[in-house]
Design goal:
Layout: E1 4-9, E2 11-12, E3 24-25, H1 33-49, E4 55-62, H2 72-80, E5 85-94, H3 101-109, E6 114-120, H4 124-129, E7 164-165, H5 167-171, H6 176-183, H7 188-201, E8 206-212, H8 219-230, E9 236-241, H9 249-255, E10 259-260, H10 264-280, E11 284-287, E12 290-292, H11 299-305, E13 310-313, E14 318-323, E15 328-333, H12 338-348, H13 351-359, E16 378-382, H14 384-395, H15 404-411, H16 415-418, H17 420-425, H18 435-453
Parallel strand pairs: 1-4, 1-13, 2-3, 4-5, 5-6, 6-8, 8-9
Antiparallel strand pairs: 7-10, 9-12, 11-12, 14-15, 15-16
Helix pairs in contact: 1-2, 1-12, 8-10, 14-18
Length: 455
């Protein structure tokens, strides 16, 4: 079996107000040894359990993997010792705030060949307004899951929600924004320094994240962000649009009228300005939010868009194991709980479970059969219809659409045979830009085609 690997590092120094990925304050009791040991145990166990013979791509996300500093080398050393571990692409996320040369050296020595740097914006007011470099007292646990779809979940490609703090909030003497300004945090100079450092270690494989729709952004500011990033010659840029997720601090600020949002049309225009600047610079807009120079597309994310198997390790991480023969899949998601996760991996090391593994108990066929529970993971069974819809959902995030050979092999019909009316109505239209509308029509048609093709 071939499967990619996603590793979730659920720790941050502070949390941004818009983030709903699972993350916690970096603990002392579970870090670094207990947590890293748990990760290593989990990865090795899953590789054995699912019979994985090849791992083509690896992505370490979070959270903020760069908060591990040089300690991340412990993980790299163990990964390199796994016989099936020889990824063509190995990506690690980092934030400018915690980026260090020691971390970068450890990444290069550990076989990492792609770095994703979360710049988001150079505008100091925008960063401070969403607690991008927040103070510790504002830190709260977030429970959203991740892993599986990189950073794509929860990002609405059409509604780019921006917020603007009231002058009263900014002027308040006790405001965290004012305190951070006094400390000089969030400065553009530090961001530029981190970008310079990252580009020296990853000159041909640097990826940069930008967000559109943040407080105080305007058309000129977005264009400035893109132009400054391009000065460091990244191979890949993600241009995300901000959305306000229920339960986040940003959501509460909107609810309590502490912040306001502009009209969607304004935010749309801002994103399009950024898109056009990237296209002019020679980048391909190949996925909803992703732009790459020719030959530099993210291979790990492409496996997500094609719905090819991957395993997820870490709290809140998700993996999907596909059975190509039956056109079905099973998704396994860990609880968003560090202590529970570490405890589970310690239990795997006990003698009884080791004996069970040697006897082959609990082993499943690829993507099917067997028990519907994997340790403490929640299991979601994707039957043929559910899996087909996910293949359409993920495939049409890319400009080429679902892989035609893969789709036909899995479901016995082509995409054109599956949704002919929807494709005809959308011919010549930008399906990526209006993905939600396109998918709504496609799913409705799929339900009727089910009776014809017995999907």
């Amino acid at each position: 079996m071939i499967a990619s690997l996603y590793i979730h590092i659920p720790f941050c120094m502070s949390l941004c107000d818009y983030c709903d990925f699972y993350s916690e304050k970096l603990p002392s009791s579970l870090f670094p040894s207990p947590f890293l040991n748990a990760l290593i145990t989990d990865i090795k166990y899953q590789i054995d359990y699912f019979g994985i013979k090849e791992i083509p791509t690896v992505y370490i996300g979070g959270g903020t993997p760069s908060v591990l500093g040089e300690e991340i080398s412990v993980l790299f050393k163990e990964l390199k010792a796994i016989p099936s571990f020889s990824p063509v692409e190995f990506t690690v996320e980092a934030n400018p705030e915690s980026l260090s040369e020691g971390f970068l050296r450890a990444c290069v020595a550990g076989g990492v060949n792609r770095l994703s740097l979360g710049v988001q914006t150079f505008c100091e007011d925008s960063r401070l307004a969403v607690n991008r470099w927040g103070v510790e007292k504002n830190f709260t646990r977030r429970h959203g899951g991740r892993g599986g779809h990189g950073g794509s979940w929860g990002i609405d490609q059409r509604r780019f929600l921006a917020v603007t703090f009231t002058e009263r909030a900014l002027a308040s003497e006790g405001s965290p924004l004012k305190a951070q300004r006094r400390r000089g945090r969030g400065g553009r100079g530090e961001l530029l320094e981190s970008l310079s450092l990252a580009s020296r270690y990853f000159p041909d494989s640097l990826s940069v994240d930008l967000i559109v729709g943040l407080p105080f952004q305007d058309l000129g500011g977005v264009l400035d962000d893109v132009k400054r990033v391009l000065e460091f010659k990244p191979a890949f840029v993600s241009l995300y649009s901000l959305t306000v997720e229920d339960g986040t601090p940003l959501y509460e600020k909107l609810k309590n009228k502490i912040v306001t949002i502009p009209e969607p049309e304004v935010s749309d225009s801002m994103w399009l300005v950024g898109r056009d600047a990237l296209l002019k610079a020679g980048f391909e807009h190949y996925e909803v939010s992703n732009f790459a120079l020719p030959g530099k597309r993210c291979l790990h994310n492409l496996r997500y868009w094609r719905m090819e198997s991957w395993i997820g390790a870490g709290p809140a991480a998700s993996g999907t194991v596909v059975c190509e023969e039956s056109g079905t899949a099973k998704r396994f998601t860990y609880p968003a709980d560090v202590e529970k996760y570490v405890g589970e991996q310690l239990a795997i090391n006990n003698e009884q479970l080791a004996m069970n593994r040697e006897k082959g108990e609990g082993r499943r066929e690829e993507g099917g059969g067997g028990r519907e529970q994997f340790g403490i993971c929640d299991c979601e069974v994707l039957d043929r219809m559910a899996f087909l819809k996910e293949c359409l959902l993920m495939g049409f995030r890319c400009v080429e659409g679902p892989d035609p050979v893969l789709f036909k092999r899995r479901f016995g019909v082509s995409v054109e045979e599956c949704i002919p009316r929807t494709l005809s109505r959308w011919e010549g239209k930008d399906k990526m830009l209006f993905l939600n509308g396109f998918l709504a029509e496609a799913f409705e048609e799929v339900e009727t085609m089910d009776k014809v093709f017995k999907i």
